[in-house]
Amino acid sequence: MNVVQMSDKISAHPASNIVNLMKDFTVETTPASAAKMDDFRQVLRPGTVVYITFLPGSDYKDTIATAKRLREEGFIPAPHFAARSIESADQFNDYLDRAVSEAGVDHVLTIAGALKSPLGPYSDSMQLLETGFFDKYGIRQIGVAGHPEGSPDMSDEAIAEAIAWKNGFAERTDADVHILTQFCFEAQPIIDWDRMLNAQGNTLPIKIGAPGIAKISTLLNYAMACGIGNSMQFIKKQARNVTKLMKVQAPDALIADLADYMANDPDCGITGIHMYPLGGLRKTAAWSYAVADGHLSAQKNGFKVTADLG
Predict the structure, then answer these.
(1) Nearest Cα to 56, choosing from 84, 93, 36?
(2) Contacts of 296 (CB under 8 A, 6+ apart)
């Protein structure tokens, strides 16, 4: 068990709030990135939930192999099921069957996927959920996508309808359903979105996506590729200074503000953080564990990690 070492206060942010938000953070990898990793145990602690991203053109058999490896090394694999990349109901069934039987998968994330046109009968995650396959195979945790700053592929009205549908689905399924969001750079758009969802009746717990430790230039490239919304201006302002493009950025201000919100608003739906390792899993994991362990010191905005990250 890790011993939390922290001061009672981090500037205006109680350190206990930050630790509570980060204590069960999740991460992700791709089969290609996993192939470059000798042993995930060198980077992650046993029991960490590791999502396995499914990119367009991927082979689900590679996802299964990665999930099996993660399970054997002591982690909880959570493969993505990208609706538009699934070619048939038989393929979906095979993917899920093998993920469960070969890798012990009981956590998944359902998404529409980045393809513009579906390869088979499924165009969105709701159609995957409606098949009943996840209950059939005993999946215990189902993640669904959240978009605090909107999506280039869906209108705000369509997103709201989808969240309402998924709340209804959560009442019908045997699994626990949660929302996992795209990454954002600023807390206020997330807080506004969470309050809006709460007013609309959302009861699904929310894990917020945070960008991992990366150069500002890297963060900007990912933000532009993913089409995230208002908080991208935060990173664009920093990128205007060419001398800062190679500066390494940490999401400490984002984490601190969300931690305070979670601690002080009884209606807050946010329950945890998902770290996108945009600058590499090793650096992001080391930083995240240091925060979860409470190795923090005060900064004007946010906090600074005091542990040696190697």
Answers:
(1) 84
(2) 6, 7, 10, 15, 18, 303, 304, 305, 306
CA 172/CA 293 separation, integer angstroms: 37
3-state SS track over 147-182? CCCCECCECHHHHHHHHHHHHHHHHHCCCEEEEEEE
What are the structural domains of the chain?
20-291 (3.20.20.220)
Cα–Cα distance measured from residue 22 to residue 25, given in angstroms and rounded to the nearest whole number:
5
Task: Determine the average pLDDT of the residues in 54-70.
Answer: 97
pLDDT tens digits for range 166-192: 999 999 999 999 999 998 889 999 999
Rounded Cα distance, 67 and 198, in Å: 34
Residue type, 82: A
Q: How far is Cα 203 from Cα 269, in angstroms, rounded to an integer?
A: 7
Mean pLDDT for the stretch of residues 80-93? 98
